[in-house]
Amino acid sequence: MAKPRDEMLTIPQVINEIGVPRATFYRWRQCKKGPKSIKLPNGSVRIRRSELCRWLEMLEETA
User: Fold this and answer.
1) Sheet of 45-48: strands edge to edge?
2) Nearest to 47, CA basis, from 10, 4, 6, 5
3) Which residues lie below 8 Å from residue 37, measured CB to CB, with a gap of 6+?
4) Model's pTM, two decimal places?
5) Which of 43, 38, 42, 31 is closest to 14 using CA atoms?
6) Tens-digit pLDDT profile for residues 13-50
7) CA separation for the pair 39, 2 (Å, rounded)
8) Whole-angstrom Cα distance, residue 58 to residue 40?
9) Degrees (nearest 5) of the Cα angle 46, 49, 53?
10) Residue 28 contacts by C-beta under 8 Å, 6 or more apart in sequence?
11) From CA 35, how far away is CA 57, in angstroms rounded?
């Protein structure tokens, strides 16, 4: 059985899901406090669903 693909989210999808302003999310990325992201050759950025979940779980543990 094939392993399901890890969904690749756009930044608008991520900020909509976690409910933060776009500027806040970009500030987190700049400070290396956001979830790990992938920059595609065309310049667009994607975040794996699994990485977003991992990042959110890490925040729960430190809260």
Assistant:
1) 8-10, 45-48, 38-39
2) 10
3) 29, 45, 46, 47, 51
4) 0.84
5) 38
6) 999 999 999 999 999 999 999 999 999 999 999 999 99
7) 26
8) 25
9) 125
10) 34
11) 11
